[in-house]
Design brief:
- The protein is an alpha+beta fold.
- The chain folds into 2 domains: about 5-205, Jelly Rolls (Sandwich); about 215-265, no CATH class.
- The chain has 7 helices and 9 strands.
- Helix 1 (about 5-15) packs across helix 3.
- It is globular.
- The mean pLDDT is about 95.
Amino acid sequence: MDSTIRQAHVEAVRRDGFTIIKNAIAPDLIDELNDALARLERDLGAKPSTNSFEGLHTVRLYNLLAHGEPFAGVPVHANVLPVVEGVLDEGCLISSLSSIAIDPGETAQPIHADDMVIPLEKPHAPIVCNSMWALTDFTEENGATRLIPGSHHEPNPDYGGDYASVPGEMKKGSVLIWDGALWHGGGANRSGERRMGMAMNYCAGFIRQQENQQLGLDPALVRTFPPRLQELIGYGVYRGLIGHIEKASPAQRLNGAGAFKSIWDQ
């Protein structure tokens, strides 16, 4: 990406809270991603959730990097990552990679900010920078992301409150990038077609432990630790959201048992 164009996108995120990179993704890659997601949805038997945040008519697939190509090329895409690095810095980390397929009949997602669960007074420096890849056209009719420009400079919204917003309309192959403090939400799909997107999310590199406990400690040893110690070394989930694995806690994966309720299912 040309440095001048990159800086213009970074400045737009700082000013407005978001930017749209048009024609960022090559058609061949878009086709590969759509084919791979359709196959995964079929093989995994993915279904809509039962809460208003994830959507009653929205199919989501989580942890996409676990499925290899073509997803491995998404986080480092040359037309997207440089802008994210400009918003955060080059030490940023992948937070999550998931798909969001909004089907006809879906209602609007509650307005929220992606960093709402992090207890920092606002406004603050960006600590989360997220992106939405348009794998189909995004229109107001089919559920384009609703955005409240400039709201990243304000305190958190009342979750699900009624706020004036604008649709992040964009053509297939474009990418929406926003500051995680921006108030936004998925739109209602009043069309007869699916709105297909992929959420490639990042966080600041300093939001992690000084020592990598997950790789530094043998899982067999960790299984002998009491539950609270397992949580303290990183096998817990912060406020029902940060640190989950496909809506399960790391402790469940570690121990093969246990229960977890996500923030969306409260």
